[in-house]
Amino acid sequence: MCEDLTGADSLHIADYAVFVLMLLVSATIGLYYAKIGRGQPNAQEFLTGGRKLTALPVSLSLSLTASVLSSVLLISIPVEVYRYGAIIGYTCFGHFLAQVFTSEIFLPVFYRLPITSTFQVGVMLAGLLCVLFKCLLLGVSILSNSQQGGRLNFLDFDLNPLRRHTFWTIAFGGTLGWIMASGTSQTRVQRYNSCKSITHARTAVFISVVSYSLFLGSAVFSGLCLYSFYKDCDPWTAGQVSFSDQLLPYLVMDILKGYPGLPGLFLAAVYSGTLSTVSSIINTLAAVTVEDLIKPNVTLTDRQLLHISRALSCGIGVLCVSMAGLASLMGLLAQARTIIGGVSGSPMFGLFVLGVHLPTPQAVCLGSLLRCL
What we know:
The chain is mainly alpha-helical. It contains 15 helices and no strands.
């Protein structure tokens, strides 16, 4: 029987203290940079940092906001491994290839164009590592249990494209998806253009590969821990959790309930992922609105555009938070992210590829045709 963790095993006051501390640190950092940024002369400085950033801060930002993956990686990737096996780890292969294409094809184009539109890391990693270390200390035979249960399915080379996960669908299909996300998405392009040189931008891209691989590997291993603990009693089918995406938090409460503060650290890690995602989206949407909708139609001073950019960031932030409840209607987080990203990003990716590689007359004709359709 699965243990019911409701009631006495709720969060300890130390867990709430850790979570609140994370919020205070994040808020303090934001207020500090808001204060020193009061001298920003225009919206360009506000949205891209005036192209003065080096590779390290941009690379960490890229790795944690890629395809809005932060919270998905922490919560839903372990569940994917729990239910379908560790083969999803091949995503690292596609991510690496995508960064090569992005660095050599898309990044130079966007960086040369004078356009704007197309510290949470430690907390996130600590949240995952506390789960992994505790599982190892408990002496759980993670790899042997996963092997017996068919979760170490790295040798699945089935050519059937209808399979959920195979080497081909993840490694090569994932490569195309990552090229789309890395090469043409607004959040990524805006960060490339915040670097002070194209060399720093390229360095940031490849540091992000290492960072992403570290987080993905930790998430995959967390999924194997999850399977090892609950292979004989699935909390989801036993009715202990309402959604499969609640399985990893359930494991955290199960194995870390005797360590006040550590469940709060995991909660802070998840929330840090959310903050990194939401902050990047807010900045992105503000940049697109200012550059593509306001500046071409209204004549405003740089100071006015700066105030509008800040106001848009606040308004979009409120809207994003208010719409968070819709996430419960989208099924598995990783699956929802893939579906939404594919539907919305694929047509745009095709247009960018054609725009970068076709001569101008053919691109103009194609653009006119697409607008008519």
